[in-house]
Amino acid sequence: MSKILVAGVGNIFLGDDGFGVDVAAHLRSQAIPAEVGVEDFGIRGVHLAYKLLEGYDLLIIVDALPLGAAPGTVCVFEPELDSDPVELVSDAHSLNPHTVLAMAKTLGARIGRVVVVGCEPINLTEGIGLSDPVAHAVHDAARVVRELINQELASRVEA
Hints:
Layout: E1 4-9, H1 19-28, E2 36-42, H2 45-51, E3 56-64, E4 74-77, H3 97-107, E5 111-119, H4 132-158
Helix pairs in contact: 1-4, 2-3
């Protein structure tokens, strides 16, 4: 059986940085297959690193990603995971997803495929709530995440 984790990350107190958290909440309001966990990790990167010790065939990280696209643009990519392990840092709030994955690897986590579903933010200043373009992208990102889950589950049936 395929084990999948969808991790919504970000800081809800920094405007559009709460995108991943909102997508996770949206997905949790829908029917999700039993072998899929959807969690809001917010800024708790160390919690995510330890959760990854449970082993996952697919990890989908949902986050706001400033890549220079139009605000609200949803992107999907698979990051390189072959970087050197990092030293454990004392400030858990400064951990970005790449650092969390490196930390999890250092701790001995078995992580299969990692996919990042991101959204171009427009506002990362203090304040609660997503900008209009990013709020509209929540449904698109949730659809993309469901497609990734369905593809993973279908590939397990075919194998």
